[in-house]
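Hi X.,

You mentioned you wanted examples for the new student's onboarding notes, showing what a folding record looks like when two proteins sit in one file. Here is a clean example. The first protein comes first, with its sequence line followed by its structure tokens.
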Amino acid sequence: MSEEKEKKAENELEEIFKSGGITAGSGDAAIHCLSIVGQIEGHYALGEGQKATKYEHLIPLLVSIEESEDVKGLLVILNTMGGDVEAGLALAELIASMQKPTVTLVLGGGHSIGVPLAVAGKRSFIVPSATMTIHPVRINGTVLGAPQTYRYFHDMQERIVSFVCRHATVTKEKLEELMMRPDMIATDVGSIIDGKEAVACGLIDEVGGLDAALGALHQMINGKTV
């Protein structure tokens, strides 16, 4: 391997290590692949040993992708257990508001606040073996038993439901039914659905893997309807 190729490989590895993403291809076919894995870290740092996606790193990265003349589209690959609600929703809003072609692909899991992220792209895919956990808003730590607390939970859940319904074809009634199902999760209410179920209920656009996601993204880049 030449010195130039070695340097390029080192830069790519450093980019993946820092941001969980990399720009692939060149010219009019260049896309940025961004991975959201583990737990989404928000206002509080997670403990050592926990795989985390730091939202404060992704916010400026998404802005730079949107402004970059070299990047033509964004592929977001998800395998997340969820995490900080406000951080996850903030990232989902950023992705949804991008003008560039965006495609999301759920591998493994798109759980909890990962659901809004999964539907944030202009086109969404999920592999058959992946699952998505849908449940009401939860919070860790001290909870005050006051009307304001319950109103906060309700309002936050309404924002999440509203976002998901705006960016997917699932109805509000169906989504809330999945959220409040009492007989599927042993220690909680909610639902765990696989890839085919996610498409059938209108949460995700299509069952498919990397080839389908990349194909849809390149079609959008080339100005074709998908």
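Then the second protein repeats the pattern, sequence line and then tokens:
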Amino acid sequence: MHSPLEIAKNFVEIGYHKVKLSAVKMMILGFLAGCFIGFAGIAATTAAATVDNASLGKLLGALVFPAGMAMVLVAGSELFTGNNLIIISVLQKRVTWGQMLKNWFFVFIGNFIGASFVALLVVWGHTPDLFDGALATKVVSAAVVRVNQTFSEAFIRGILCNILVCIAVWAAFAAKKVEGKLLMSFWPVMTFVLCGFEHSIADIYFCVAGLLTKGIYGISADVLTFGSFIVKNLIPVTLGNIVGGAFVVGLGYWFVYLKHTPGYAMSLEAEQEEIDIAEEY
């Protein structure tokens, strides 16, 4: 098991390599992560579709949804919410603010396309027909819940969610084996889903799927529009995710484990000088 200090040091280099990807690779890997989260979304909704007890249904969905994070971590992909931890590399002066923002932008676009792609195929493939159409109602209901919040509620739930998501990523990097990564990432993700916190990429899937299902199946939901999805969900949740992931988890762990380790900072500077000299030749 890696210690928290080792995890922090590793993240500095992980962030550096993430921002060095080309924009095309960022988008492709982001697309895959969006797909993985979308698959987890439809699986979680399906698991709870016919459960009358609301809390039991929520628990079943929460137990299924971590499959998405498992695929993101093990299969290789780029997830915007987890990449909020690149701020550790920025604070350690290994990565610039511009490089981090470029990564966030292209990965987010890839995530959006991937999650929407899965939503489109799920609905066009008539998966909501399951359980005599009960799943279709649940798909729309899941979207309505996400747009039926105030800006501040969505923002706060976004903060809480990405604290847990980034802790899931952080804890996964503590493990040296795949089974350890899966086990350590499971609990924080299950917790955020169970508590109803908001994940921007998951919400892209849920809201796009809800909009498409509403139209194709003729389910009434006046509050659910593309505008309400963007303004009342995606914008505040994304901003909340950044605060929770980058400024609570990322900044917090950087301050505790890296800010007061001058020897490590000096070794990074020396390593960068060697890289710069090598590149000149």
